[in-house]
Amino acid sequence: MKYFTDIKVELEEITVLVICEALKSPTIGEFTREGFIEGWKALGADTIEKQRALVPHLRKNIQTDQSLFKRVYRNTFLIARNTGQKAVALDTAIDYWNLFFRNGSGLNWDTASTPWLDWYVEYVQERWKKTVNRDMWNMTLEFVLKSMEDETLSWWEEAGAWPGVLDEFVHFVNEKREKAGKMEVE
Predict the structure, then answer these.
(1) 3-class state of residue 113 by DSSP
(2) What are 107-121's pLDDT values in tens digits?
């Protein structure tokens, strides 16, 4: 915690996860000596002053560099799991989805007619209630990206290779849209 404070990073911001990915952290905020030295060296920041100066760049890049965003998102699954677990607790996953998909952090998973993140959180809290495995975690990101490109979900196919939770979420979205009198997936 002190280290992040020293380099001017708030513990509740996505930049913590960017740094954890770059330094190959085994868990949130835990660094190996080799990962710490080699990670900062690769970023050209081998002193605390250089690390502090790099932080604004890391904050900006997570919002503009989609490949970095994907790497950090996927790595977060690995470091968010409790020791010895293969999945992430649902409450923990929701916290991270809020961090990744709210405006100001990473992507803003809202479109003109659909509050996607709010609906997804509502759905998983009401109807899923299980842990989040790696496939669900990774495919949630793919779903986010596709739904932001085309909120009508014209690309959606029930027989597609999506996890069942996302198939069910599409039905949930259709129910919400029908009640609200909005567009429905064709």
Answers:
(1) coil
(2) 899 988 899 999 999
